[in-house]
Automatic annotation (TrEMBL):
Protein name (database record): ABC transporter permease
Domain ABC transmembrane type-1: 16-210
Transmembrane segment boundaries: 20-43, 55-78, 84-107, 149-171, 191-213
Gene3D superfamilies in UniProt: MetI-like
Keyword Cell membrane part of the UniProt annotation: yes
Membrane topology term: Multi-pass membrane protein
SUPFAM superfamilies, alphabetized: MetI-like
Family as reported in the entry's similarity comment: Belongs to the binding-protein-dependent transport system permease family. CysTW subfamily.
Amino acid sequence: MQVNLIDFWPRILEATYQTLLMVGISLLVATLIGLPLGIALVVTKQGGLLENNSIFNGLSAVVNFFRSIPFIILLVAILPLTRLIVGTSIGTAAASVPLIIFSAPYIARLVESSLLEVKTGVIEAAEAMGATPWQIIWRVYIPEALSSIVLNLTIATIGLVGASAMAGFVGGGGLGDLAISYGYQRFETDIMVVTVLLLVFIVQATQMVGNLLSKKAKRQ
C-alpha cells in the first residue's frame, strides 16, 4: 500500500524530533564524560601537568577498546545493559545508551587532540607565574583550545547523526527507523529520499552553527 507523502509529514516531523532528541541527549552526556576524560589523558601523559603513566595507560586502553567496536555491533552487544538502564531496548531513550557509549571515547580523543594544540610556551608561562595544575587546566588549556574543541564537538555531533540513523535497525526511532521501515522494507522511495534530505540538512546546519561558534570562541 502506497503511503501518501503529504499525509505522512506528521510522522516525518515526529521522526525528525526523535533524531534531534537522541543526538542532543547523547551529545550532552557523552561530552560530560568525554571532556574530563580527554583532559585526564592530556595531563597524565608523559610530561603532563599531573604525569601518571599508570592512569594514562589505563584510560588510553579503555578509550581505544570502545573506539575499536563498530557502532552497529555495539548497538546489539549492549542490549541487555540498555534494558537494565532504561527498561527497554527500543525507542529514543534506548538508542541514546549505545550512542553515549560509542561517542564518549571519541569525544575524549577529540578533546585530547584540541588540548595538545595549545602551545607549550603558554603552559610554561602559566607555571612560571605559580599557577596550579587545575588553574592551568581551566584558565589556560580550555580557553586556548575552546575554538578547536567546538569544531571537534561539531564533528562528533555529525557522527552522532549518522549513528542515530543506524539505530533504526533495532527500532531506535528517528529518521533512520523511518527510512528502514518505509523506505527499505516497504520500498517507499519518496520516504527514503525525504529522510536522506532531512539528515543532510541537519548535518549542514550543524556544521554551519559549529563553524560560527568556533569562530566566536577563537582567541585573537
